[in-house]
Write a structure and sequence with these properties.
The complex is a heterodimer.
Chain A lengths: L2 E6 L1 E2 L2 E2 L1 H13 L2 E7 L7 H6 L4 E5 L10 H14 L3 E5 L2 H14 L3 E10 L2 E6 L4 E7 L5 E5 L14 E4 L11 E8 L12 E5 L9 H11 L2 E5 L1 H5 L20 E5 L5 H4 L7 E6 L12 E4 L2 H15 L1
Parallel strand pairs in A: 1-4, 1-6, 4-5, 5-11, 6-10, 7-10, 13-14, 13-15, 15-16, 16-17
Antiparallel strand pairs in A: 2-3, 7-8, 8-9
Chain B lengths: L2 E5 L1 E3 L20 E3 L4 H14 L3 E6 L5 H10 L3 E5 L9 H13 L5 E5 L10 H9 L3 E11 L2 E7 L3 E7 L3 E5 L11 H7 L4 E4 L15 E8 L7 E4 L4 H11 L4
Parallel strand pairs in B: 1-4, 1-6, 4-5, 5-11, 6-10, 7-10
Antiparallel strand pairs in B: 2-3, 7-8, 8-9
Classes of the chains: A alpha/beta, B alpha/beta.
Chain lengths: ~325, ~260
């Protein structure tokens, strides 16, 4: 039977939800499920990884992994792959894991599939194309380990109640792999609930006409209470709001209870990141905007008029 | 410094793509051009060489029509081009693409290789990193601000929650986010000059690669329509839309 690995990103000694989602899926795919975590506090992250199905966690706590871009981590991961020969490694589609998986492929010569939404077996995965309108079934060929980058939130994380054995990873990293140094770290997180977790997401696009109109969305978010504000790629590229607010193919995938799309036409690149939302409300001037094809409630009208009215309505009734 | 800018020819992003019986994208008779996502990287390459001297070589892989993408980059000011085109590359996956492009790049003199974060049509987003590993250089990914510093580069690297400042020596590869630079438009003079600039067209054999080297590692075995989300109620705002939305939010129990 197959050995499935999950690469678990560690930040400040914590593992994020994507690794736990992937471990939950990995339990269906193989009889050996193990995780690799590289970075300060990796050993300490073994608890949740074990609870979600990892029998062993290969943990490298060395700070060399935090202080550099992907090369030291790729080297350590490749050494582990050579020694233990897993059949498949699952990564989450994140900046760190894209760098890691891309480089690892050059060393293993094995296949690497991006943007998977489902993994059907140790050599089979699915992705969606054309804005999620087509499901593509892909056979993974060539040498092991098959490498698959899976979009976050493709699976629900469910604990299985296990405990992981921690296997320390000794890092022997040459100076030639330490040339790209991380010299500063900055957080630009917004106040309030995070986009990925908020039960209500309010997203703005080009139709808002001016960056300052994002204030209207924040005010609406305040009136709703448990809402986060996001944006389309077009307005992020235009510099209206920071990149960490971007929802879509590039950017964050959200699945809130209610998604409110304001001045968003519904480009495929955006739909991929939000069409699994439970309920979708769209406000747009253009009655032919593709966003109306996925909306449960579509409003053809001027968002700049409607949003302040809605904020007022919620404040007075709340 | 000498810079290689990677450029991809893609079908017109506003068109309606079609899949053929072989599960490959239909490319015949489809308009295309330089991936707009490549333009910030091309612009960065031009600005860096304008600051420090040196040349920009555009490297591309694609059908013969991909020459349009190479010429577009040349019209913006890149100095020369390499286009790898070969029937054997139809249906190339990420591994084959990285193998071919890294081999072509190794034939160039470079201090820096610049690429988009991902292509607009495929969105794979791992090919530059694989190329960096083959070349044995760091991949300064997701750069949103770029400057030359002490014979190396210093970038702001986008992260999920903010950004990092990364410093690296050269040679290196860098992926450039949209917004990192403001791409210029081609001038008439640039378009005329582009026709005279040297472009080397190469096959897989010219690169010294064998058919085995370019065999895809992924096979599409089926394509189905995704479950369609049903469109709901669409109303025209007559002044009552805000009240209707408020009611919808209450029904959803989020207010």
């Amino acid at each position: 039977m197959a050995a499935i690995w999950v690469y678990a990103e560690v930040k400040d000694g914590q593992v994020g939800p994507p690794a736990l989602e992937l471990l939950t899926k990995a339990r269906d795919l193989g009889d050996t499920v193990e995780a690799v975590a590289l970075g300060s506090g990796a050993s300490g992250a073994a608890g949740p990884l074990g609870e979600h199905g990892a029998a062993r966690v290969f943990a490298g706590d060395d700070e060399v992994f935090d202080g550099h871009l992907a090369q030291p981590r790729v080297h350590a991961l490749h050494e582990l792959v050579k020694e233990h020969q897993p059949n498949m490694i699952l990564f989450a589609t994140t900046y760190e894991s894209r760098d890691l998986a891309g480089r690892l492929q050059a060393r293993t010569g094995s296949t690497l599939m991006s943007n998977a939404n489902d993994v059907l077996g140790p050599d089979r995965a699915q992705t969606q194309i054309f804005g999620g309108t087509k499901v593509v079934d892909v056979q993974l060929e060539g040498p092991d380990p098959k490498l698959v980058l899976v979009r976050p939130k493709s699976f629900a994380a469910e604990p299985s109640g296990g405990q992981a054995e921690v296997v320390p990873v000794q890092a022997q990293i040459g100076d030639d792999l330490k040339t790209a140094k991380v010299v500063e770290r900055h957080e630009e997180a917004a106040a309030g609930p995070q986009l990925g977790d908020a039960p209500v997401v309010i997203a703005g696009g080009r139709g808002l006409q001016d960056p300052k109109n994002f204030e209207l969305l924040k005010e609406l978010g305040g009136a709703i209470g448990k809402a986060a504000v996001g944006a389309t790629r077009a307005v992020v590229d235009a510099g209206w709001v920071p990149y960490n607010m971007q929802i879509g193919q590039t950017g964050i995938t959200v699945k809130p209870d209610v998604y409110i799309a304001i001045g968003i036409s519904g480009a495929t690149q955006h739909l991929v990141g939000m069409k699994e939302s439970k309920r979708i409300i769209a406000i747009n001037k253009d009655p032919d905007a593709p966003i109306f094809k996925v909306a449960d409630l579509g409003v053809v009208g001027d968002a700049l008029k409607i949003i302040p009215q809605l904020t007022e309505e919620l404040r007075s009734s709340g | 410094m000498n810079v290689v800018a990677m450029a991809k020819y893609i079908p017109n992003p506003t068109g309606t793509p079609e899949i053929g019986d072989d599960f490959l994208l239909v490319r015949e008779g489809v308009e295309g051009g330089l991936d707009p996502g490549d333009e910030p990287a091309v612009e960065a390459a031009l600005e860096l060489t304008e600051q420090s001297g040196g040349e920009v070589t555009v490297v591309s892989m694609g059908p013969a029509s991909a020459m349009d993408a190479v010429r577009k980059a040349l019209s913006l000011g890149c100095h020369k081009g390499v286009l790898v085109t070969d029937d054997a590359l139809r249906g190339a996956d990420a591994w084959v693409t990285a193998t071919v492009l890294s081999t072509a790049i190794q034939l160039q003199e470079f201090d820096l290789v610049l690429a988009a974060v991902e292509s607009t049509d495929g969105s794979t987003g791992t090919v530059p990193q694989t190329i960096a590993e083959i070349l044995g250089v760091p991949a300064l990914s997701f750069a949103r601000k770029i400057e030359l510093k002490d014979g190396g580069v210093r970038i702001e690297r986008q992260t999920e929650t903010g950004y990092e400042v990364v410093e690296s020596g050269l040679p290196a590869l860098m992926t450039v986010t949209a917004g990192a630079t403001t791409p210029r438009y081609p001038t008439l003079k640039g378009i005329m000059q582009a026709k005279q600039k040297p472009v080397e067209q190469m096959s897989v054999a010219d690169l010294g690669l064998s058919p085995d080297d370019v065999r895809p590692t992924q096979k599409v075995v089926g394509i189905e329509d995704a479950p369609v989300r049903k469109a709901g109620e669409v109303i025209e705002d007559d002044g009552s839309a805000a009240a209707r939305i408020a009611e919808f939010l209450k029904e959803a129990k989020v207010v």
